Amino acid sequence: MTSTAPVRTVLTTSREAARLAERQMSWKPRVLPFYVAFLIIFSFSLWAYVPNPTPLGWAITVLWGMPVFGVLIGFQGVLMVRRRLRQVDRMTPPAPVEDDFLIVLVPTIGRHDTYPALERSVLSYVEHLPPYFPWMRVDILTEEGCAAAEKIDELAERHPLIRVVTVPKAYETANGTKFKARANHYSHELRIEEGEAEDDVWVLHMDDDTGVGPDTAAAVAQFVNRQRRAGDDAKHMAQGILTYPRENAVSTFTWLADAIRPADDIARFRAMTGTGTPIAGVHGELLIVRSSVEATIGWDFGPKTIVEDAQLALNFCQRYPGRSDWFNGRCYGASPAGVKDFLKQRERWAWGLVALCFNKTIPLRYRLFIGMGMVSWVLGPLQHVGLVLMVAWFTGTWNTSPVTQSVVLLWAINFAYVIWTYWEGLRLNVVSSANHRRKWWEPIVVVACIPLFSFLEGWGGLRGLIKFLKREENKFVVIAKPA
Fold first, then answer.
1. Distance CA 81, CA 84 (A)
2. Is residue 469 within a helix (H) or strand (E), and if so which, with residue range?
3. Residue 364 host element (H or E)
4. Which InterPro entries would you find in this protein's record (predicted)?
5. What is the mean pLDDT of residues 29-52?
6. Could you tell me how far CA 112 lies from the centroid of its own chain?
7. Mean predicted confidence (pLDDT) in 114-133
């Protein structure tokens, strides 16, 4: 496993760089859908309000009012994105990175049903990143004896920028870490051994089903070059936006359901990671970390870790407060192939995040913040409108107003924000697709299905909580990856 020498490639022209920068910055989140939804919901709620001091009134007052703290943080992030885009002329323009080395790290379980997506993603790295990163390498990180090992080796032989890093079956970390975190820790130790844990080496973490485009390369290069000029204020970690192009989707239903995820990136993640302290966690795609900084943290978090990216972020908060950032670059993933995989994915996330809430190695203030979000998530099925109406029917209490009228304002903010996340997330996914125009029925269907999507999100979270409480063994479930 010797290091692959970097390959010098032809750089893009200044005209092409300007065109890519214009494409990268052409999108900004719209807030009008939120305002419209808020006015409609607030007006109707005031008109229909009847005091409701019943147990049902108290229950829905709490359940439907609880998310407001997270909603306000998310909306702050949206406004921050819009403000940064207005300041684009004062930012460092995209240009090739001449002095830093980029390592793209792609962990994969190496199954045959995940290989097509891996190939699509890796080929996008070697096509689009070299014009902006003349010094780079792509490391495919896999397990010894994986099913698709032969195909992965053949892929690496097709391009000098690719190498395969194989984690030996006998490899164990000091703390007994398993799954993806174990593989990441092996890679981290290998970089230290090869002398690549330096300030001018960056590790771009990607999933094996998530590709990049020329606009992604421009945005990452812009961030890296900006740190060169920042001096003592330089950042050590940053995250971009995960989008789901329509053409990568196997299921239209799960593609629409995943509209919430890019919206979360431009809202909650922008507000937290973008202000320097990623206490809301990060996701493992389009996450760039200075290699020297990652070397001080590592990935050896223990055997219960299955949301290793979130734990990395929380450890980063303790050691490097104020040193993370957010950038307006997009990567291109794929939503789960079906509802079953969708639920498995959410269940795993919930199990891992609940475990973090009880991890005493993490400061209590960070665990409380994650815990507030998890309570709202796992209680999702209890917040469902259908369940509330069913309880009202069984109890003969048809009044579903809150206890006091003042709570109507919080409800309107929360419900309008949920509508905005799916509306705007759908728009961002469509903008990232080959066909940049929404089909006429897509916004209608995505809004109409919000109760169903919310129930599935909450049901997956509740299943994860139940498995944690039953002390069932945590499993890093890897779903099939569409090509």
1. 5
2. helix 450-469
3. helix 364-378
4. B_mannosylTrfase_Bre-3/Egh, Glyco_trans_2-like, Nucleotide-diphossugar_trans
5. 92
6. 25
7. 96
- Lowest-pLDDT range, 15-19, 73-77, 170-174, 462-466? 15-19
Higher pLDDT, 157 or 379: 157
Instruction: Assign domain 94-337 one CATH number from 3.40.50.720, 3.40.630.30, 3.60.110.10, 3.90.550.10.
Output: 3.90.550.10
- Amino acid occupying residue 145: G
Measured between its terminal Cα atoms, the distance across the chain in Å is 28
* Residue whose structure tokens are 């991890």: 359
Q: Which letter does DSSP use for residue 473 in this model?
A: P
What does the radius of gyration of the chain's CA atoms come to, in whole angstroms?
Answer: 23
Beta strand segments in 271-369, E: 287-290, 324-332
CA gap 1, 106 in Å, rounded: 16
- Phi/psi for 289 (5° steps) reads -135, 140
Is the pLDDT higher at 49 or at 19? 49
Partner residues linked to 218 by β-bridges: none
- Cβ neighbourhood burial of 50 (10 Å; 0-12, 13-18, 19+): exposed
Q: State the residue for tokens 């779903």.
A: 479
**What residue type is 54 in one-letter code?**
T
The one-letter code for the residue type at 404 is T
Residue of 434, 71, 23 whose CA lies nearest to 244? 434
pLDDT score of 2: 38
For 231: left if phi > 0, alpha if psi spans -120 to 50, otherwise beta; the answer is left
pLDDT-based confidence at residue 90 (cuts at 50, 70, 90):
low
Q: What are the pLDDT digits (tens) for 344-355? A: 999 999 998 998
* Edge-to-edge strand list for the sheet holding 324-332: 162-167, 136-143, 101-107, 201-205, 287-290, 237-243, 324-332
